[in-house]
Amino acid sequence: MKPNDVSTTFSRPESFKRRFREFKELTIKSILFICAASSVLITFGVVWTLLSEAWPFFKEVSLLNFLFDNEWTPLFENPQYGILNLVSGTFLTTIIALIVAIPMGTITAVFLSEYASNSAREILKPILELLAAVPTVVYGYFALLFVTPLLQKIFSDLSSFNALSAGLVMGIMIIPYISSLSEDAMRAVPLHLREGSLALGASKLQTSFKVIVPAAFSGIASAYILGISRALGETMVVAIAAGLQPKISLNPLESAQTLTAYIVQVSQGDLPQGSVGYRTIYVCGVVLLLFTFIFNLIGARIKSKMEIKYK
Amino acid sequence: MVNSKAQSNIKKAEVINLTFAYTDKNVINSISMPIFQNNITALIGPSGCGKTTLLRCFNRMHDLYGDVRYNGEIKLYPDNINILGREIDPIEVRMKIGMVFQKPNPFPKSIYENISYGLKIRGIKKKSYLDDKVEDSLKKAGLWNEVSDRLHKSAGALSGGQQQRVCIARALATEPDLLLLDEPTSALDPIGAAHIEELVTELKKTVTILMVTHNLHQAARTADYTAFMYLGDLIEFGESSQIFTNPKEQKTENYITGRFG
Amino acid sequence: MNQLGETSQMKQRIESLKRQDSYFWILGLMTLVFVLVILLSLIIDMALSGWTRISLDFFLSFPSRFPEKAGILSAWVGSLCVVFVTAMISIPLGVASGIYLEEYSKKNIWTKIIEINILNLAGIPSITYGLMALGIFVYQFRLGQSILTAGLTLGLLVLPIIIVTTREAIRTIPSHIREASYSLGATRWQTIWNHILPYSSGGILTGVVIALSRAIGETAPLITVGALTFIAFLPTPPVLAVPPFVSAGWLLDPYTVMPIQMFNWVSRPQEQFHVNAAATGLVLLAMTLILNAAAIFVRYRFRKKYKW
User: Fold this and answer.
1) Which residues 17-76 on chain C approach chain A with CB closer than 8 angstroms?
2) What is the rounded CA–CA span in Å between residue A258 and residue A254?
3) Is the Cβ–Cβ distance between C292 and A130 less than 8 Å?
4) Between chains, do B105 and C177 touch, taking CB under 8 Å as contact?
5) pLDDT digits (tens, 9 = 90+) for C33-82
């Protein structure tokens, strides 16, 4: 017969069976919601920790010193706190990286999206993904022990720790981020736009750069922003290959220390929690986050401007 | 061929002054019509007339997509309950009213798992009972002979018409009071479609059927009653034999004769 | 006369456009080849330097002052423990978040906040996670410089990856399958448990593999939370010979991981340690390759099984 089969009448809202079912569903929904909301907690955690640890630093060190001191020597006898020394290192390596990554990443993306055959793409994409998957410490090794000696043959006065090798390797490392996102954006451009352009007699090159790239601009801009964030935040390559001498300089042949490499240097040591020296790593973290945030904002502004222009 | 005699005059369900809106736009305007037991009622009309929307009110599918408010009632007999009522659980409505969709959508699981799913979620675990039910439903769907030896193989390997029959069997397994068919043959080839039509005609002996179709000939062939809708209004309702040979409304006649579609 | 002139001008233009096209094609190809060459030289260079050190001894020895005796035993065991904790944290949280965002959430401001937040997290430099973990886990929660801290840190780091891949995997499930389940009277959770999760498990698994591959290679955040570089012992074993037969003591033990060991060795001036670093790099590369290949394989298998 029919064991505990479909009920022949509808249950009332107060019935136990119904209440239980609704309770169960609500519980599950709540648990899942808490999980999703926890990601917001992480952001709070990051911001709160950084700010609360960095803030007391500024009670001991004036902003003027912070911005205009000549050197960054917080761990020395007469500490100086000129942050520009580290900022210079970060920017130098980042710019070198972007000079490599943005053109090569974009060309790769256009090539894969518009020129390469499907089978070629199937082979080349995983290889690029592999490039992105290599641990950064391996790239650091490569920069120090392969690229630097190689470059020293060209630039004889290249110091063994220098910003150039680190920047170049960082650039290579970032190419897959830029090319992958850009290519996705380009491939999402509807076929009829391409066909329209080609039908008018435009070459593939013209079509790619005059039609596809503007249409995919939003995605491409996101890719660039991601690349910039990656370069700013990269740690191991610069810690291994760029050196530990903070200075304000744009000479890539010399050593330089970035914000991130400094944090690593201090973390390996033994600074008492709460000391000014200890707080400097948080200050660097705040500066880093600030830059990342600013670039994201700039990127978003440019994106929305371009969208208006090209829609 | 037109059905000349309705089978009964007992109402299984009734729509009473139903109005339904999607974001401020009325999609269904104050419709009232009966659904007679063990009969096939067809909903016809041009695209956008609201027939599918009306169908999906019956099993509260709209509730899945946000807070909806139904004005009016759909009453189910003999319970005499308004299934659109706020205190009624849509889950229970769907347990009593089954649906078959336009595009055959068997789960990517075995045929057995597809058909027993509706029973499993009700907590029925006894294997012998499930086995019987699966066989029974497949027989009702006219598919048992073809698949009895491959019940545990994937339903996706079947042809379109067979997949649709699996979906019908799946809906029948839970012994629904009312079966909703949303253009059940429009995605099928002519032979598959013909089989389904035959099946539906057989099925009405055991279950009441409400069917949306854009194929007028199909409605004329299989349905006992037909409702013609246009832009959210119910223009005309009656026995199919009357609607298709002697429509009362001008709009109905225009639609049936193909003056607009 | 005029027409002929125009035609030849057009022809010239078309020719130059075609040439441009082929130049670009060559440029694109050369770029890709260049990238490939770089990748290969990286692998070959490390292989040439480090191959000699790869041996069973290397895997079974602790680090030492003497480069020829030094090995990565504590490092790979540490990596294993840390990745395990990372998985335990990120997988449930990530999959649950993905399910909530795809199946439950409505398009309101709270959802938008959560979504923007997840995007943000993906852009934060990884070392920042280390700084946060230092303040919160190491000091505030008093978890110290332990495996648990490391696992929590990396778990939060890779969380966005898992959330995003879970969501994408769920999105590939067509709505008519959901509707079929609901139309039979299933509750939301029944639909998720019986259909959504099984059908998206391939994509989710792919995301998990990618996330863990990332976690194995992460260095900076772990340095910040105090992974030590000279560990000549293993964490407390989780299995005991006496009741209660399992122990969670290892969670609070100090540790090191492979990328940090490699970092330590490559930072030393002595060349012999560089050989060790190269060997460790090879091991890391091999793991990365294997995991990525596994991810591709899983993706392929599941795509075959569920063809919508």
Assistant:
1) 17-18, 20-21, 24-25, 27-29, 31-32, 34-36, 38-39, 41-42, 45-46, 49
2) 13
3) yes
4) yes
5) 999 999 999 999 999 988 888 888 888 888 888 888 888 888 888 899 99
How far from the centroid of its chain's Cα atoms is residue C301's Cα? 20
Nearest-Cα distance to chain B for A35, in Å, is 23
DSSP secondary structure string for all residues of A268-284: HS-PPTTSHHHHHHHHH
Please give the domain boundaries of chain B with CATH numbers for all domains.
11-256 (3.40.50.300)
The answer on pLDDT for C4 being more than 80 is no
Residues C186, C61 share a domain = yes
Could you give the CA distance from residue B148 to residue C6 in angstroms, rounded to a whole number?
75
Q: How far apart are CA B158 and CA C68, in angstroms?
A: 64
Pairing of strands B40-44, B178-182: unpaired
Asked if B89's CB is within 8 angstroms of A18's CB, the reply is yes
> Which residue among C52, C68, C93 closes a domain?
C52
* Contact between A130 and C288 using a beta-carbon 8 Å cutoff: yes
Give residue-wise pLDDT tens across range B151-169: 999 988 898 889 999 999 9
Average pLDDT over residues C14-32: 86
In the structure, what pLDDT confidence band is assigned to residue A145 with cuts at 50, 70 and 90? very high
Q: Which residues of chain A have a CB within 8 Å of the CB of C127? A: 233, 235, 260, 263-264, 285, 288
The number of domains in chain C is 2
- Band the pLDDT of A17: cuts 50, 70, 90: confident
pLDDT value of residue A2? 40
Out of A50, A115, A208, closest to residue C131 by CB: A50
Q: Which residue has the higher pLDDT, B244 or A273?
A: B244
Gyration radius of chain A over CA positions: 26
Q: Are A116 and A206 spatial neighbours (Cβ–Cβ below 8 Å)?
A: no
